[in-house]
Write a structure and sequence with these properties.
The structure is a single chain. By secondary structure, the chain is α/β, with parallel strands linked by helices. It has eight helices and six strands, in the order βαβββαααββαααα. The protein starts with a strand and ends in a 6-residue tail after the last helix.
Length: about 210
Amino acid sequence: MKKEVILGSAYLAPVEYYTKLFAYDTVYVERFDHYMKQTYRNRCVIASSGGALSLTIPTEKSEDLKCLMKDVRISDHGNWRHVHWNAFVAAYKQSPFFDYYADEFHRFFEQKYEFLFDFNLELCNWVCEQIDLHPHLVSTGDYMVASEGQDDFRERLHPKKLYTECDPEFLPKPYYQVFDQKNNFLPNLSIVDLLFNMGPESLLVLRDSIVKHE
């Protein structure tokens, strides 16, 4: 086990994110960074029949150009909860474990959360509970300046950055995916892709996706 890591808030974060929850003693989740679009803060990527599909949560426009993550409010624009839920059903209804988790998972898309950070954190806690992962998660009380003993992945975990270049300790272990014969294996998708396809074995996939350097 490593000591401490700093992560950003993420909507149903990718597998790489959860390998950090597995590998570190303490995980700080940043609340005081400036909100930026086109990041995992409000976007997840799943495997649809047509390939990788991004799902984005709309947010309220802030008058402050530098809105802090903790203050970002979720918008109701575009009936996104219904759209996302239908996308999950279409993508995973044939997966081995979707029906097992569906009722509890659906509740997150029936309830209206005000703040994006709170929504992301509750989803993260729920996923961890399902896969028997017990990270020590700490929400930051101010913007965290990384110390020498801490690994900082706030900017390294990003949809537009290649994990192969940014994270030498992550090597995604392939697992069964519903459309893998059509699309081949799609690495580092949202954690729900792993959860719905592998269920309780998700923890083993996370473990085996961590590169141990001698």
